[in-house]
Amino acid sequence: MLISFLFIITAHAQYYLRGEIRDEKNNLLSNARILLHSTGYIYSSGSSGSFGIMTTKHVDSVTITLDGYQALSIKLETAKFHSLVLKTLYTSANLQKNRLLSFTRNLKPGERRNWTVGTETYNSLLENEFVLAEKYPETGFAINTDKASYSNVRRFLNMNTTVPPDAVRTEELLNYFSFKYLPPPEDSVFGFHSYVSECPWNKTNQLLTLQISARKLDPEKIPPSNLVFLIDISGSMDMPNRLPLLKSAFTLLVNNLRDKDTISIVVYGSTIGVWLQPTSGKEKEKIRKSIEDLYPGGSTPGESGIRTAYNLAKSQFIKGGNNRVILATDGDFNVGQTSDDELEKLITLHQQSGIYLTCLGVGMGNYKDSKLEVLAKKGNGNFAYLDNEREAEKVLVKELTQTLYSVADDAFLNIDFNADLVKQYRLIGFDNKWKALVDSVSELDGGEVGSGHSVIALFELEPVFAAGQPVTNMPNLAKINVRYKLPNDTLQRYTSYRCPYNVTSFASLPADYRFASSVAMFAGLLKDSKYAQKYTWSDVIKLATESADPKDAIQQEFITIVEKAKKIYSKIRKRKKPIS
Prior knowledge:
Blueprint lengths: L1 H10 L3 E9 L9 E4 L5 E3 L5 E6 L3 E7 L6 E6 L3 E6 L3 H6 L3 E2 L1 E2 L11 E3 L2 E3 L2 E2 L4 E2 L5 E5 L5 H11 L11 H5 L15 E10 L2 E13 L10 E8 L10 H12 L7 E7 L3 E9 L3 H9 L9 H14 L6 E8 L10 H9 L7 E6 L7 H10 L4 E3 L3 H10 L1 H5 L1 E12 L4 E7 L3 E2 H5 L4 E2 L2 E4 L3 E10 L14 E8 L7 E7 L3 E2 L6 H16 L10 H11 L5 H24 L4
Parallel strand pairs: 1-7, 8-26, 15-31, 17-18, 17-20, 20-21, 21-22
Antiparallel strand pairs: 1-4, 2-3, 2-5, 5-6, 9-14, 10-11, 12-25, 13-24, 14-23, 15-16, 16-28, 18-19, 23-27, 23-29, 24-28, 29-30
């Protein structure tokens, strides 16, 4: 009897497999899938990348898998602590390369410092400089619909404080405004219009204003949407301009839902999980109540929330539909994977899934502009900053189709200047991150373009022919090619346009284009650009006042914003003035 008892004890002896899982850069990997061969049971690594598994064997074998990494099968001894490394798949590694917003071959970046404000973070940008057209005739930029920088700049100025230079993304300020929409030809996704005029801040140079307009979707033909609201309800969101603002914003969006749309809500904070199961847009009252019942508390496990939201979006995936996660947060991730690089990798793994990512930033103090901008771009999506309820209405109601419904993906514009007409050129805005510029394997980053969206791009040109010099029978100024894909399609498509060289006086430009120039000048002063030395805040106010649409409240507000900036920055200059 005693012998039988000892045999049973030995047969059911418990051993413990312990260890951690990392990637090749020594980052801990959470949620890796661990198959225990002796039982067939599946476990996963925790938020710290560690694992502990009970087994009846002294030596057992496991297979570890994680999206984007090579599977690892290995025998493990229970007497040891194991540090296991998963190797990145080639395709995943390729996707994780730094991305460029604009690109001119063979140019090397200068030095640049990083900018932070309190605990807010911004990607360090390097302003585009003049480029010799004869040596480098081609340059290009991503076409996208991000507008977050303008509302964030407005927030700083409304707080009577200066703006971090790297928070000023000129192209986002320019394209915050709804300029007159010029529809493309019926058979095209994109339409083009261009003007060459005098440059308002440098009379010896010229200004190329280029407008690219995307096709509008027929409202009756907009496909059904599978939207997952991923809402940060952590303790840091317990401020009037954070969770309460988001609740108002999402309630506004709900009012525009159709019966064929499906809405889910995932939350992360004191709890992580599905707050609202997939629900038809017909049940608006149920969705509104679910939003209203949200309450803040706890830490910020953003990584776990992102994983949960993507898994839910995949489970409800609509083939040919608009599948999108809408992440709303102050960006203060402090549990799980928290660095920009780690979160980039997480989003990159879902990039090819056909699920877009829209990021909505709120709050101040610990607002992480750099983090949300990266996530949106890696998620083939767009990015907005909500500083008040009016901005929420603009983004999620008035511009809903531009924000949520894509007509082109991975869109990139390439422009080839005619060196017989252009001596030098400078792309205004679309400045690259320092990190991407110094990375020798960085790639061009295309953008997602929403329905009916227009992009204004400005180039300052130093012409071959001096002002007043007769120019007749001239060829085109430049040739433009746009590379893009249709949503849910892998086929690369192209469309082209030739910019005529017809010089117009600046005063004769359409008012929208003159107003756009005032916005670019405003951005230059905020960034303390070396190209903004020949004009003042008063010049910007004068040009904006003369060209702004008196019926456009947003353009009129811009004038008051510039006036605030003038007061704030004038005080600083007075303080710096030496005492004689």
